[in-house]
UniProtKB/TrEMBL annotation:
Pfam family, one: Methyltransf_PK
Protein name per UniProt: Alpha N-terminal protein methyltransferase 1
Family membership: Belongs to the methyltransferase superfamily. NTM1 family.
Keywords on record: Methyltransferase, S-adenosyl-L-methionine, Transferase
E.C. designation(s): 2.1.1.244
Example GO biological process: methylation
Any GO molecular function: N-terminal protein N-methyltransferase activity
PANTHER family linked: AD-003 - RELATED, ALPHA N-TERMINAL PROTEIN METHYLTRANSFERASE 1
Reactions catalysed according to its record: N-terminal L-seryl-L-prolyl-L-lysyl-[protein] + 3 S-adenosyl-L-methionine = N-terminal N,N,N-trimethyl-L-seryl-L-prolyl-L-lysyl-[protein] + 3 S-adenosyl-L-homocysteine + 3 H(+); N-terminal L-prolyl-L-prolyl-L-lysyl-[protein] + 2 S-adenosyl-L-methionine = N-terminal N,N-dimethyl-L-prolyl-L-prolyl-L-lysyl-[protein] + 2 S-adenosyl-L-homocysteine + 2 H(+); N-terminal L-alanyl-L-prolyl-L-lysyl-[protein] + 3 S-adenosyl-L-methionine = N-terminal N,N,N-trimethyl-L-alanyl-L-prolyl-L-lysyl-[protein] + 3 S-adenosyl-L-homocysteine + 3 H(+)
UniProt KW Transferase keyword: yes
C-alpha cells in the first residue's frame, strides 16, 4: 500500500541530523491541513476528528470512526491497478531512481555498522506495505536470503506472489520471497527475532500516530540483535497534511522524529531522496536502531568484507 506522492508547498524542509540520536532536540510541531483545505490546529484535534482517538490518554472514544479511517484507506487501494505504476500513483517512472537511492542508503548503513552483514550470515528482511512486491523484487532480494512481505490489499499481494514466486526471466536475484502476510500494519505482529532489517516504505502514513508508535514497539521484537529499521516516506515541509481520499497523513520530519522517539528508537542515519519530479512531496529515508550505536559509524566501516549487494541499480 502506498501513500500518494503529490506535494503541496508549505515552506522549507527541516535540517537533517546525521548522527546516532535519541532526538533530544525534538519539539512537538502542531497544526496542519487536510485535502479539503481545512485547518487542524493540533494533532489532538486531528485524530479526535478523523479517528475518534484521544492521543493524550491513548484511548479511542469512537471505535467506529477509527474503523472507517482504516477501511477507507484499504478500499481506496482496492480500486487501484495491481502494477508498479498503480501502486506508485501513476509515477511508475520514478521506480528506478527510488530503488537506486534506497540501494545506496542501505549499503551505507550496512558498511557503517560494526555488525556482521556478510554473506556468511543468513539475512532476512521484512517488506512492510509491500504492495505488488516492487521493493522486494528490485531491492531486497538482491541483499537478503529471505524476504517476508506484509500487505493489507489482497489483489496487490496476489500479484506480488505471482511476480516473486516465479521471477521474470533474466531477473538477477540473491534471495527469495518466503512468507506473504495479508494484514494491515496496525494489527501485524512480526515473528520474534527473525529480521535483520524491517523496511517500511510509503505505507506508515495510513497509521494514526498512536498506531504508528505501537507498531514500532511491537516490531522491535521482530529484529535480531543489531537489526534495524529503514523508513522511507513522503514528508511535509511543516506540520502535517491529511489526504481524506485514501485516509493517510503526510508528516513533517519533526513529526516523524517525535514518533520515533516515543517508540524508543534511535536515529542512525537519514537522507533525502534526490531526483524526483518537483511536484512530489520530499521523500526522506531513516535508518533506526533499538539501541544507541556504541561505535563511530564512520571509523568502524567494514573493510575487506563481501557484503550482500549487487552493482548499484541505476
Amino acid at each position: 500500500m502506498f501513500s500518494r506522492l503529490t506535494s503541496s508547498p508549505l515552506g522549507p524542509p527541516p535540517l537533517p541530523i546525521n548522527r546516532p540520536s535519541r532526538f533530544p532536540s525534538v519539539k512537538m510541531e502542531e497544526g496542519g491541513l487536510d485535502s479539503d483545505g481545512n485547518h487542524c490546529s493540533t494533532r489532538l484535534q486531528l485524530w479526535a476528528k478523523e479517528t475518534g482517538e484521544d492521543i493524550s490518554s491513548k484511548t479511542c472514544f469512537d471505535p467506529a470512526k477509527k474503523r472507517e479511517w482504516y477501511d477507507k484507506g484499504v478500499a481506496y487501494w482496492e480500486r487501484v491497478e495491481a502494477s508498479v505504476n498503480g501502486v506508485l500513483g501513476g509515477y511508475g517512472h520514478v521506480n528506478e531512481r527510488d530503488i537506486a537511492a534506497s540501494d545506496r542508503f542501505l549499503l551505507d548503513v550496512f558498511n557503517g555498522m560494526s555488525a556482521d552483514f556478510s554473506k556468511s550470515k543468513h539475512l532476512v528482511a521484512l517488506d512492510c506495505g509491500a504492495g505488488v512486491g516492487r521493493v522486494t523484487r528490485d531491492l531486497l532480494i538482491r541483499h537478503f536470503h529471505e524476504v517476508d512481505l506484509v500487505e493489507p490489499v489482497p489483489h496487490f499481494l496476489d500479484t506480488a506472489k505471482t511476480n516473486l514466486v516465479t521471477p521474470s526471466p533474466g531477473l538477477s536475484v540473491f534471495g527469495r520471497a518466503t512468507n506473504f502476510y495479508c494484514k494491515p500494519l496496525q494489527v501485524f505482529n512480526p515473528e520474534e527475532k527473525r529480521y535483520d532489517v524491517i523496511w517500511v516504505q510509503w505505507c506508515i502514513g495510513h497509521l494514526t500516530d498512536q498506531d504508528f508508535v505501537d507498531f514500532f514497539k511491537r516490531a522491535k521484537a521482530g529484529l535480531k540483535a543489531n537489526g534495524f529499521f529503514v523508513v522511507k516516506e513522503n514528508t511535509a515541509k511543516q506540520g502535517f497534511i491529511v489526504d481524506k481520499d485514501d485516509s493517510s497523513i503526510t508528516r513533517s520530519d519533526t513529526h516523524f522524529r517525535e514518533l520515533f522517539q516515543q517508540a524508543g528508537l534511535y536515529l542512525y542515519k537519514t537522507k533525502l531522496q534526490r531526483g524526483f519530479p518537483k511536484e512530489l512531496f520530499p521523500v526522506r529515508m531513516y535508518a533506526l536502531t533499538t539501541e544507541p550505536m556504541k561505535t563511530d559509524p564512520v571509523a568502524n566501516r567494514t573493510r575487506g568484507q563481501v557484503l550482500n549487494h549487487p552493482g548499484i541499480i541505476s
